[in-house]
Amino acid sequence: MRAKADIGVFGGSGFYQFLDGVEEIKVETPYGPPSDRIALAEIKGKKVAFLPRHGKEHDLPPHVINYRANVYAMYKLGVKRIIGPCAAGSLQTGVKPGDFVVCDQFVNLTRERRDTFYDGPVTTHISAADPYCPELRKLVIAEGKKLGIAMHPQGTVVIIQGPRFSTRSESRWFQKMGWEVINMTQYPENILARELEICYVNISLITDYDVGLEGQEDIAPVSHEEVIRVFEANNERLRSLLYAVIEAIPGERECGCKSALANARI
Fold first, then answer.
1. Does the reported pTM lie above 0.85?
2. pLDDT tens profile 252-264
3. Which domains does the chain have, with CATH numbers?
C-alpha cells in the first residue's frame, strides 16, 4: 500500500471526532481488522490518520481490542509517529482531574493480550527501558505549556486488564508504589509501536481520582459516565494540543525509536 499518512492518532473514550474533512478507509492486516475504519486528513501539510481504539460505537472493551491490528494498520499506511491520548485515573492527589500527564514509564498488569508481532522463528527482544519516544514527549510537554495546560512532564501508568475498575485495596497498592496514572489500554499499544520502530507518545487526560486513594476516601467510586463527562469537557484542549504537536513535529526523526530492532534480534 502506498504511504497515506505520516502521523497516527489513536482516540480514546469520548474522543471519536478529531479530524475535519476526512476520507475514511478500510485497512486489512495479517492480524485481522482494526477497531474501525481509519480517517485520513491533512493538518498543516502533514497527512494524519485517526483510529478510535474502542471503535466509533465504543463496542470494543479494553481487553478485546485488537491492538496488533490497530498498530499494524498505522504501519501499513506509512505512519512513523503515533500519538496515543487516553482517558486515565489519578493515583496521586497531586495529579488532578483535568491535568494532562505525559507518561515516561509503564507497569503492565494485563494478561493474555497478544503483545508482540514476533512469535518466531526470529527471536526478537525489544528494549522497553524507555518505552515512550523522548522526542515526541518533549514536543508534547512544550506545546502543552504554551497552551496553558496543566502538564505533568513524566509519570508511570499502570495498565490493568479491565473492563472492571480497581478495588479500593488495589488502588491503595498502586498509590503506595508511587505510580501516577491508571489506564486499561496503554499496553500493548505502546510496545507494539516500538516493535515496528514507530515513535509513540502517550497523553493521559486525568478524568478522576481512582477509588481508595488516601486523602480522597470521601469521593464516589469512578464510573464510566463520569470518565466520559470529564473527557468530553476537555476535548477542545486536547484537540488544540494535538494540532499544535502535529504542526511542530519535524520532518526527520532524531530519536532511537527508528532503530529499535537494531540490537533486538538473536
1. yes
2. 999 999 999 998 9
3. 7-259 (3.40.50.1580)
